Amino acid sequence: MICLFVNLLGNSLEDTLKNRPFYHWQFPSSNPPSNNPDYYIPDSKAKYLGTSAGILGVGLIIGVTGLYLMPESVTNWDRDRFGFRSWLADVAIAPAVDDDNFWLNGVAHPYFGAVYYMQPRMAGYSWAESVLFSFVTSAFFWEYGIEAFVEIPSWQDLIYTPAMGSVFGEVFYQLTRYIQSHQGKFMGSRILGYTLVALMDPIGFVIRDLGLGGYFGIKNKNEFYAYASPLGLGFGYKF
Fold first, then answer.
1. Which of 52, 107, 193, 221 is the most buried (most CB within 10 A)?
2. Is residue 225 one of the residues assigned to a domain?
3. Would you say residue 33 has pLDDT above 60?
4. Domain range holding 123?
5. H/E/C letters for each residue in the chain?
């Protein structure tokens, strides 16, 4: 039921963005431009997602270390019970309702759910596949993975994080594609455009805009096409 609700909400959101009559929004075309290097299309969806998932894993481990060092009054984590035995005990118990503050439950968790969602979406996977990735990452990697070492899995985090994260994530995705289709600019400013993209998809920003993807053999189809087309090699590589 939850997945169905999120799917219907996401489809409604997409239709709304496509048909909105106000401002000058142009919904990204289903046939993205092939001569705009700012509109990033990886040559391998699997390789892009694998790289972003690896960065996400390292980032989450660093993040949980930071949370572990924060005051217990903020995280509600009991550091004295941290360990593998605690993990076994926590995953064997039914999820509980946590009492985290609004900043964690209402802001941070949906944001990270959106970050999870953005990884397969920017790689080229569908909306439904990206929702599934967000749910799996939130549930098994975080709640029943890292966080279970210090506390019982939470109902809010299992449901709210990927559900709202997927909704916000689709907004992030459409806005990112809008910025990319306008040469990386937002409201005429490239600085504002890149800042928004970095905030909405920090992992993708590192891969695409800072060039990390190139070290893992990930190429931007549009960038290669833009540089190769004067030599007549565009079609040879693209297809």
1. 52
2. no
3. yes
4. 2-20+42-182
5. CHHHHHHHHHHHHHHHHHHCCCCCCCCCCCCCCCCCCCCCCECCHHHHHHHHHHHHHHHHHHHHHHHHHCCHHHHCCCHHHCCHHHHHHHHCCCCECCCCCHHHHHHHHHHHHHHHHHHHHHHCCCHHHHHHHHHHHHHHHHHHHHHHHCCCCEHHHHHHHHHHHHHHHHHHHHHHHHHHHCCCCECCEHHHHHHHHHHHCHHHHHHHCCCHHHHCCCCEHHHHHHHHHHHCCHHHHHC
